[in-house]
């Protein structure tokens, strides 16, 4: 064997790591961005607001055929989507549909969708949706350093989505907290210049079926208008949405209510992240313990 052959053999790794198809991390996101123009969206909201359910139902919509004027054209995270959809399937033997939650302390998970307009007039578009844990959302309210640590990440996003829990708006005990939490975070991110004149925001009330069922549409609309009036002038675009990804049994709303308009906002226009995504620091565990002790959760 020649020296050249030895050199080639030495360079071949014993094992080659292949992508599992589960959710992507920041490195995987950069790989997509290097190959394709893409729109990157970040979902922010408290635990059980419906972020992961929204992700799962986008996947389910495309399993049924064209959605929101687009055809499914592929995904690098199909197993990741399916993993989060499993509890909504009859094969899970759950009494009612549910969704696997984003684990606490797990940072941000990214899910990839490639779509093409139904008329086949435009090239394939790539959308990557980031799902931040409810733990991350909670600490952003209470720690300025955590807010500032999100600046490199959110600066690379095409859109930032703030979600308000419609079920909590319908609860007399929780409605004022639900009303203010997302608005306080938007204000904090704008005041610290994490978000600014080039940012695009979607302000979403999820679980709109609870709003309709409890006949609090006027209150919910006031929440949306209050946020829009307060912050629309500070950013490039501020859109409001009413969504019910998976309405409760007996609801008057159709499954996926409001999702088409939200997805269309995410797909247009395509914006490629213009900076390298920074690693988001893990939240201090001691800080979380202090928060948990104060909140009793």
Automatic annotation (TrEMBL):
What domain of life? Bacteria
> What region holds the Double-GTPase domain?
40-266
Indicate what this protein is called per its UniProt record. Answer: Double-GTPase 2 domain-containing protein
Q: Which organism is it from?
A: Desulfosarcina ovata subsp. ovata
Organism classification, top ranks? Bacteria, Pseudomonadati, Thermodesulfobacteriota, Desulfobacteria, Desulfobacterales
